[in-house]
Amino acid sequence: MRRLSLVAGIAALGLALAGCGGDDSDNSAGDTGGNSGSGTEASGDVEVFTWWTEGGEKAGLDGLVKVFGEKYPNLKFVNGAVAGGAGSNAKAVLASRLQTQDPPDTFQGHAGGELSDYIKAGQLEDLSDLYQSEGWSDVFPKTLIDAITYEGKIYSVPSNVHRANVVWANPSVLEKAGIDPAAEPPASIADWITQLDKVKASGVETPLSIATDWTQVQLLETVLISDLKADAYKGLWTGDTKWDSAEVTTALNDYAKLMSYTNSNRSSLDWPDAANMVRDGKAAYNVMGDWVAANWQGEKLEEGTDYIYFPVPGSQGTFDFLSDSFTLPVGAKNPEGAKDWLRVVGSAEGQKAFNTVKGSIPARTDASAADYPTYQQSAIKDFSTDTIVPSLAHGAAASISWLNDITSAVGKFGTSKFDSGAVSELQSGLTQAASNNLQS
């Protein structure tokens, strides 16, 4: 099967981005498209389709829009955002629009497996010429470019890098449970379960908060990373690691145990609600990507006092990676205006305006860590040294169809009693999903 080349070389991506800690200038020679206004004389509306509608995500989008307006005053940004579900709602709307040949001018898509469905359907334009004219091959890591390349053609422009395997915790809740928040975090899932038991015994109804099905998929992927480790986890997406293996059974049992500590109203919540249970002291822990840092930064919460963070226990030294990127759909009404939007997304100025408030780190290697808040500085450092693995829940590891099959199995499990029978049924569903999609 021909596929996007994310998993094959992704471990090298962190080393390729080691330059993120280096010197930077918004007017650097590497930023050929950042400040030159080197686009066309396009005019009119440019509809930009995302799922960024609140918090740090909306702030990041607003940052891009500001730069876009300054550089291309003849173009009008039209916000086509669809809220909810880490993009699941937006992707459903987008699929319908693409099928009826009514595409937006550009849309957000995760680098990696997610793009493969659009590419194979002939719904995206090749952006290789834009990479050449803007000099992006010199400032984006090769392995990240490989993740958005199919059969030698490049299909999107990355705006950032996010980390998915992060635990956010409330220090006050931990202290009341007899856990020192300043101590080393738990080293394994088993050690974390011991802490969760302490939190439960202290009277906290929800030791681990969670939300709707996609957040449960994200928790599952982090447990798989923790228990299988990086190489075996990546093997799940190539067929080298079998979904019906004993090692996956062990991870699924750990996942079931973690789910037993979660809130019963999870199906009616989205990620900000679950994260805010930690903020408000109603939960001790939440597993979510680093966009949480941007949301809480906007609320003036103080790191170390109001919250702490650490990699999901057992996944230390591994960076669960995703990247938001923008595309040029076939049949876009204003393709030249869309290319100007892409120029802003790929520019040093655009990436700084976007990432400093979104909680992510820049995709460009010529950015300065000093421009970013504390969490992002730590993420830039980790990304340069950790082993990189692709996120399942956020489109890097698998195609949309495979993710949908996994989400269906995980969603069903989320309504179960988390017993051995439910674990067996979950593993069967995941094994069938792999069989269906690895053969496609």
From TrEMBL:
Q: Which UniProt keywords apply?
A: Signal, Transport
Residues annotated as signal peptide: 1-18
Gene3D superfamilies per the record? Periplasmic binding protein-like II
SUPFAM superfamilies registered for this protein in UniProt: Periplasmic binding protein-like II
- Superkingdom per UniProt: Bacteria
Family annotation (InterPro entries): Bact_solute-bd_prot1, SBP
Compartments annotated for it: namely:
Cell envelope
Keyword Transport in record: yes
* Family designation: Belongs to the bacterial solute-binding protein 1 family.
Q: What does this protein do?
A: Part of a binding-protein-dependent transport system for a sugar.
Q: What is this protein called?
A: Probable sugar-binding periplasmic protein
